[in-house]
Design brief:
The protein is an alpha/beta fold and 170 residues long. The chain contains 5 helices and 5 strands; from the N terminus they run E-H-E-E-H-H-E-H-E-H. It has a 5-stranded parallel sheet with strand order 3-2-1-4-5, sandwiched between helices.
Length: 170
Amino acid sequence: MTAKRRILFFAEGATMAHFVRPLALARSLDPSQYEVHFYSPSRFERHLRSLPFTTGVLNSMPSETFLDNIARGKPLFPVDVLRSYVREDGEIIRSIRPDLVVGDMRLSLPISAQLQKVASAMMINAYWSPYAKRRSIIPELPLTRVVPPRFLHGVYKQSNRLLSPCMSGR
């Protein structure tokens, strides 16, 4: 019998979507084949009761701060927050010793995983993918309440072109 693969999930607390997507993936894994560890902010603990995997608390910047940063056009996460995330991520990774780390909006995770020499995967919105068929979806942002999305289409389309090499690893 082969050993179970140990997979560690990090669900950032920026929005509920960043919690739900990795949770759906974690729940889809066969417990007979995978040892799942799921870390998320304490405010999501009630959604994790009676699941067939280990859970833990992940420090996370308040959702309100994240959304305010988006609305003001500021960096999503200040440098000091990212540095603290890298430290915390590293501690958790060292304690679990996973085969794979999976995150959603935990921007520190690729750095943390590389420092700990463990494979990582990041979940993203499908419309960010360079393989998406329809690439002109404008996300709901505070700006779209003031400027109609049809006026932002060109800017958003251009930003997708610029991001495509980053998202495909080229």
